[in-house]
């Protein structure tokens, strides 16, 4: 049983590593993205060394984070849509971009939030947060692109069987038509109900029918069940995604939103909403609905290539998307791959814990402390090897 658990942990680590590398794979590590204008989606970083003023947030591309801000206090913002690299513009004072020195003073179409100052969620806390003892994952809203602690989403959900996209409550209210689609196509909301000495989760996706109500005889519920019960793998190919726009286009003859509003019922307008991957293809694209999306500034929801999954898959097809570690692992057998992943994860986890401990204890990171740290890692590896583990 222990061996099986270790293998499961390694597989999970592999998925985490691949996901992290995919974020970088879709962006160019050598050339500043500024000349490409407002890039549809790219990895973005903020530099606390150069732009510590919260009133003047700024973001830089992957290449500038590597070249211009090497050794600076930078933090990763994951990806941002329609963003143009700020490195060296007026927000950086006398600091100039080493890759493209001549840039506009400001990128007026960039959107910034508190993430650029290292804060996240409705609690406006940093990540990682050394003062937060809760073991809580963070989830990104696909509209505002802010990150939220799962406990601050206003809802709880069961572990997903397939990839899902999340829209926070604020963004749902920003585009209230989404509540109508949520009643038919979103993942069923789950709330926690406390009893005397136990807590159970209750599905509240559909209001219960009274004995006097007759079940619906329309074809729409069948379609809803089909969407809700998809059992395909988490990651879907571009060929599968390609069917989305065509499917949506076939629905433009009539306004599907009006049909759904008439069918009812509407979902309670509370908490974040989780959607199964491919839900965007269900959005009506008639002229009237397109105007609604533009007014709410969520027109990108009609674009199937706007998703994080599409960005990651495209990045892995690019020449510069082949991360050295992933290229190295491609030539290894399965056992060797797991060994590399385990070692990489153990090293990064240990380094993070070491640095956090130094900060918590107010210690200066000296050369001697670093040597001692790596000697302890080597000793740990020798003990594990002598015990018969790799």
TrEMBL record:
The gene is UBR7. Pathway: Protein modification; protein ubiquitination. GO terms for molecular function: ubiquitin protein ligase activity; zinc ion binding. Gene3D superfamilies: Zinc/RING finger domain, C3HC4 (zinc finger). It comes from Gasterosteus aculeatus aculeatus (three-spined stickleback). Coiled coil: none annotated. PROSITE patterns: ZF_UBR. This is Putative E3 ubiquitin-protein ligase UBR7. SMART domains: ZnF_UBR1 (SM00396).
């Amino acid at each position: 049983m222990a061996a099986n658990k270790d293998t499961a942990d390694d597989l999970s680590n592999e998925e985490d590593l691949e996901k992290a590398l995919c974020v970088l794979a879709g962006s160019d590590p050598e050339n500043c993205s500024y000349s490409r204008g407002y890039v549809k989606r790219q990895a973005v970083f903020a530099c606390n060394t150069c732009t510590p003023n919260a009133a003047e947030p700024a973001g830089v591309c992957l290449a500038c984070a590597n070249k211009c801000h090497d050794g600076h206090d930078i933090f990763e913002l994951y990806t941002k849509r329609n963003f143009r690299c700020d490195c060296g513009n007026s927000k950086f004072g006398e600091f100039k971009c080493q890759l493209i020195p001549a840039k506009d003073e400001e990128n007026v179409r960039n959107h910034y939030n508190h993430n650029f100052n290292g804060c996240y969620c409705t609690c406006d806390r940093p990540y990682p947060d050394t003062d937060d003892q809760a073991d809580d994952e963070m989830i990104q809203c696909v509209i505002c692109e802010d990150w939220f602690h799962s406990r601050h989403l206003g809802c709880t959900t069961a572990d997903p069987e397939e990839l899902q996209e999340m829209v926070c409550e604020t963004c749902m209210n920003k585009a209230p038509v989404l509540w109508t689609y949520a009643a038919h196509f979103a993942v069923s909301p789950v709330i926690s109900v406390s009893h005397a000495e136990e807590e159970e989760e209750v599905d509240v996706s559909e209001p219960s029918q009274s004995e006097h109500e007759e079940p619906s005889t329309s074809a729409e519920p069948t379609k809803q069940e089909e969407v809700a019960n998809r059992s395909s793998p988490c990651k879907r190919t571009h060929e599968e995604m390609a069917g989305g726009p065509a499917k949506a286009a076939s629905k433009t003859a009539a306004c599907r939103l009006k049909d759904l509003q008439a069918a009812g019922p509407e979902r309670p307008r509370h908490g974040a909403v989780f959607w199964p991957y491919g839900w965007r293809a269900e959005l009506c694209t008639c002229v009237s609905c397109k105007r609604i999306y533009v007014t709410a500034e969520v027109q990108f929801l009609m674009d199937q290539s706007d998703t994080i999954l599409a960005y990651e898959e495209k990045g892995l097809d690019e020449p510069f998307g082949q991360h050295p570690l992933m290229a190295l692992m491609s030539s290894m057998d399965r056992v060797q791959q797991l060994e590399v992943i385990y070692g990489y994860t153990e090293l990064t986890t240990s380094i993070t814990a070491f640095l956090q401990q130094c900060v918590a204890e107010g210690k200066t990171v000296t050369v001697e402390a670093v040597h001692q740290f790596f000697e302890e890692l080597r000793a740990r590896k020798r003990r594990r090897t002598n015990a018969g583990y790799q």
